[in-house]
Amino acid sequence: MKHQRNIEGLRQNAQKKKQDAIERTEKGIQQLIKEGRSINFKTVAEVADVSTAWLYKEPEIKARIEHLRDQGTRKKKSVPTHQKVSDASNNSKYQALKQRIQKVEAENRGLRDHLEAIHGRQRSLVDENEGLRREIERLTKLLAESRAETESLRQGSSLPSQSNEQASELDEDKPKHLANKVTPLKSCPTHEVAPEKAQNKLDLINLVKQQFDALGVQLNSTLIKTIKSASEETIINAVKAFEEALLTENIKKPGAWLKRAIEEGWKPNESLLASCVQGEVQTKDEFSQWFELAKAQGRVKAKQQTETEFSVQDNAGEWASWESYLESGWTLEYLKRRAKQR
């Protein structure tokens, strides 16, 4: 009796497993139909979690799977016309979208390359700006040092501070008829009207004319008439007085000035002319000392003298007037101080 009960339990358990498998198979077939997937023994076995051998053993299930399989095959073979057109249209859209995507990707690559080039240029400009900023700082520093040196030279100048004021007072005391026109002489007069050279009034007029031509002054008819009516001594004294006046001031109307000098019998100040000659000698000595110091300190390498000025040549081969060096602060006193500091 005990052995009989065990067999019945096994039979019931097997029947229960078979029923579960049938239900899973049915649910699997319904799932495949719902999802629109192919129905065959393999797909049904996968979704129902049963073996294909079991499916073949069950007649009803086998028949149903074969029926659904054949039905699905017929549907695939007979695709509706509208579906074929829809597939072609979709394929055309897909190709168009694909080409558009490729074009956009190419444009993006070009823009990316252009952006990288702009960033590179920006970095280059930043470096260039930094270099310019450092150069401006260097030049600003040099300018400040130059201004400080110029101020030091100005304070250490040997000229008294009131010299400019005195010069202004002298300018204010000038006669009104001696206004600025002809530039003052930079050196003592070298052209003289020699009485022994003038055989007659015409020769004297020619000598005066030559001297005035050298000064850039032309004789007018009124002045020539005045010269003809005056004595040789009066004319010579007036010309010397004119040269003396050029040493200290500018003359606005040289012809009128000389005419008045002849008519009023003006005479030169001999002491002023002698002082001028002595001053030229002192200037030459000062220039010689200045040049030797400047050359020793490596500022200049050559010199030359004309009738009107001294010139020096720097190490670059450029010529400049001695006065321009003095005006820029390179005075004899400054060079002497530099020589002592070395």
UniProtKB/TrEMBL annotation:
Bias (Polar residues) ranges: 80-94, 153-167
Annotated spans, Disordered: 1-22, 69-97, 147-176
One Pfam short name: DUF6262
Name of the protein in question: Transposase
Protein source organism: Crinalium epipsammum PCC 9333
Lineage start: Bacteria, Bacillati, Cyanobacteriota, Cyanophyceae, Gomontiellales
